[in-house]
């Protein structure tokens, strides 16, 4: 119970510091949410500032915003006046969750078997080719991979749509692949390295000497400890998917929270950016907690080391 209370307090303080820092940086950035090439009449600017409390001192704005957040109200959007930030996030979050979840599942479903297979054939030509491909996948950023996928599968082959979102599987294929590629490559490399270390352990040599088959060694003795580094990597992998969704959703024109974040930052939509930051920050805190629990369940030494 004490450990749970300490971690909850740490999570709340982390989110508060993140939101406060983001609030200050947004207000310090040049420009404002209602700046335009043609300036509005002074009375219109004054009315807008009063409506969104931008005419108040910074500390007062912060106090009002924080009070609204504690009540579950993320405020109105400056650039989408017909919607609140809660409504925009409620509409975009499921789309981002679907794409991000499918991307991570794809990375694990392909990366884990490839990593194990490569470790069992370490040093052979197939292993070298696979690791070269994995290194290439890590080197190509998402903002390069996404247009290349569009060029190949949408423009040249015309198999899939180039962008947009209709809720069908065809519109999800390219974004999911673009999000999954770097995680898939890293998962394969990490699994290979972890399995090589485990397969060379003394207890596995002793098991081989007792006549156990390689298949039993792999599934009964090597796979579980070999996957511990992969489980630990799930936390940064999920965070990578969350952060990468901003680029991918912008390229493919998907109305997820990543695209809302980019548009909100460009348009100085303070409340929308702060709302997305809070939601993503809370998701990262929950992801870290879930991964820590999974690691402790797989490795009793981690449970015993916790206070």
Low-pLDDT runs of 5+ residues are: none
Biggest sheet details:
none
Which CATH class of one domain?
A: Mainly Alpha
Distance between the termini: 11 Å
Name the CATH architecture of one domain.
Orthogonal Bundle
**Any idea what the radius of gyration is?**
24 Å
Shape: globular
Strand percentage? under 5%
Percentage of residues in helical conformation: over 70%
CATH superfamily of one domain: MetI-like
Write down the overall mean pLDDT. Answer: 82
Kindly state the number of beta strands: 0
Protein name: ABC transmembrane type-1 domain-containing protein
Keywords: Cell membrane, Membrane, Transmembrane, Transmembrane helix, Transport
Membrane topology: Multi-pass membrane protein
Family: Belongs to the binding-protein-dependent transport system permease family. OppBC subfamily.
Structure characterization notes:
The model has no long low-confidence stretch (mean pLDDT 82). The chain has helices at 2-28, 42-51, 58-70, 85-120, 125-139, 142-156, 170-199, 202-209, 214-252, 257-266, 270-298, 300-305. The radius of gyration is 24 Å and the shape is globular. The chain has a domain at 92-273 and 288-305: MetI-like fold (Orthogonal Bundle), CATH 1.10.3720. It is mostly helical and 307 residues long. Helix 6 (142-156) crosses helix 9 and helix 9 packs antiparallel against helix 11.
